[in-house]
Fold:
Amino acid sequence: MIWLVVQSFRKDVDILGDPWGLPQSPSFAGYVKAFETTPLPQYFLNSVLVTLAVVLISVACCAGAGYAFSRLRFTGSNLVFLVFIGVLVVPAPVLLLPVFLISKDLGILDSYIGLIGPYAAGVLPIGVYLMKTHFDTLPDSYAEAAEIDRATAWQTFRLIMLPLIRPAAATVAVLAFMSAWNEYIYALVAIRSTELFTLPIGVADLAAKKFIYGYAPVFAAMVLTAIPVYLAFLLAQRSFMSSLALGGGVKG
Structure:
């Protein structure tokens, strides 16, 4: 990342002469040219819309499913949960063709929904596992106290249990954000309209034209694409680390 930032402030002649050198006279020409030659604002807006939708859907679905697997026992719940976990061992490229064919049959290719649906589904296995693990750590006394107060299952989940697993929710949000923001392969085959390109596709398109527009704009676009990911992780770092430590309660 540091190397990309350094190169983004250099001129093409300097980059080609010494790819590992420092900028002798830092310039924003690469950033200016990146915006002049590529509709980066539109790509950025597309990525933001898709990513925010994926984050919201992923957190909501994973929290509900994790709570159901942890607290609402039903026939076959263990088997269904094992199926969720089993998907984790399936390589992502293996799922590319089936997901593409399903999206084609549903008529959602080349649309926001065509990206949001598969991206959110891809977060479900690890997200449900994290949520269930955290719900399992919460003492049964919380739910029992809510039951004594005649709270419904929905009220217990929304008002009592959900606020206690905020570290897990933050972790799922970060994972969903990074997955959707950086995804390239599926977007490459599912999107044809240039006005729907996300940042990874737009930057790749700019990189393919580096011999026309130069290297500096490519590096500048890469830096602008990576900044939101770093900011998202920094903002949720404490919750992310708490989630890894299984914070949120001690089973008693």
